[in-house]
Amino acid sequence: MSHLLNHIYRTLDMAIFTQQADGRFCLASSMPNWLLFFLGRSDADSHDLLATFPYLHCFMADAEQLWQAQQSTPLASGPWLEVNAVEKEVPLEASALWLEGERVLLLQNLGNKYYQEVEHLQYLRNGLLNQEALESEVRKRTLEIQRREEDLAIKLVSVTSYRDEETGSHVRRIGLYAAAMARALNWTQVDIDNIRVAAPMHDIGKIGIPDRILRKNGALNDEEFSIMKTHTEIGARMLQDSDIPVLDMAASIALHHHERWDGSGYPHGLSGEAIPITARITTIVDIYDALVHERVYKVAIPEDESIALMKDMAGRHLDPHLLDLFLHLLPIMRQIRTEVQEQEETCAAI
Amino acid sequence: MAIQKKVCLLGAFAVGKTSLIQRYVNSLFSDKYHTTVGVKIDKKQVTCHEQPYTLMIWDIAGEDDFYSIRPAHLRGTAGCIIVIDGTRQNSYTVALELFERVQEHVGRLPVVFALNKADLQDEWALDREQRQLLEQLGCPVLATSAKLDQGVDALFEQLVVQFAPKKEEL
Fold this sequence. Notes:
The complex is a heterodimer.
Chain A: H1 3-11, E1 14-19, E2 25-27, H2 33-39, H3 49-52, H4 57-68, E3 75-76, E4 80-83, E5 89-99, E6 102-109, H5 111-164, H6 168-184, H7 189-198, H8 211-214, H9 222-229, H10 231-239, H11 245-256, H12 277-292, H13 303-313, H14 320-328, H15 330-349
Helix pairs in contact in A: 5-7, 6-7, 6-12, 6-15, 7-11, 10-11, 11-12, 12-13
Chain B: E1 3-11, H1 17-26, E2 39-48, E3 51-60, E4 77-85, H2 89-106, E5 111-116, H3 128-136, E6 141-143, H4 152-163
Parallel strand pairs in B: 1-3, 1-4, 4-5, 5-6
Antiparallel strand pairs in B: 2-3
């Protein structure tokens, strides 16, 4: 090893080894003081560096590759820490290179350079931790706001529920079913949250329908039915023009949830994909929940019969593609039915 | 004669990997966060199925935007402990990424997930579904606290028992 190189390596607090055929390493430079503790005798012919520094085990495969390719560009192992005789950490780094026909391994005590890096990284990581904590706080508060919005929406809807005897659980389930479909459609989390809150408001316009029609026992005549149909537009007017995305979505659902896939619905006779998807989803989940549950005016229909009825509506009343998705998600819908009913029963028991 | 086994602790930065090792090896704990750069190796003697083992415990610097673990560090690993800070969502995401990366680089090997900082359970950000997802990966999931010395020994035991053959298998 040239005198000049030896001088450079000494300045860098580095030891130079060359690897022998038996895999052991010969020290080719003077031994730095810090290395003496780890290697013991400085006049030993060769050293088992892998036994002394177990970290090198993970580096040797890469070093071997470099030596076989006879590359003179050094490959660094990355830093590791050893502990010396006085229990002080010694940060080391190894580099492998091919030099003058020899397999060379440099061992460097990184000293202050390492601790400067630690200080720098600590500073950056503290910053990241603060940022994470802030983001977590924002998420938590956003969630609280969303829950309040949802509660507010449910309370609002319950005003109409009192009049048409719709249950609170039905309203909550509609939101959860719709959100499950939105999730399956890979919507953004914001849109999933919005439809969970917005879908239950689809019938909010019923607040504007007179009791004699809304609570009438028996079939509505043509005039009464025309009035009943206006609940879609009343609901939309109540919810629109707020600049709040969830209410905008709710307004659109309220307006269009009686449109039909074949164009025979109301109020605008829209057909196919001209009907907003949020409304098409709400129509499906509303019909499902109404069929499988008991109402004051009807008994609960078994699920298999309800599904058969819904399949019959595909392509006429309901979006056939969304209905397929709904049927695919049926286990989730059943779970929602069970869990939300349980909540209601538990509350009633209390 | 003790069999030497390499064990790696992985996870996002500041999840408490170094603290878990310090508690396990030296029965020490410090509240102050000292970031790890590179790797530090500690040793611990354990016995499993009457066979002594020397665990070479690799404390590998945590993952973040500036540093990612080197695949070379996983060479020769008998098992990994992937540490999650229960109060930080991000550390859960990193843990799942690391689990995949471990499999990609060294194949299917024993893994235990540590849900660390159990002393701060009131502030935990992980929900039941996320914990279930971890369990579905087929690895033990343990709540740990280096601060309270909770679940730390069990964490390493759960890992060792996975790679240590039973006496009759030796």
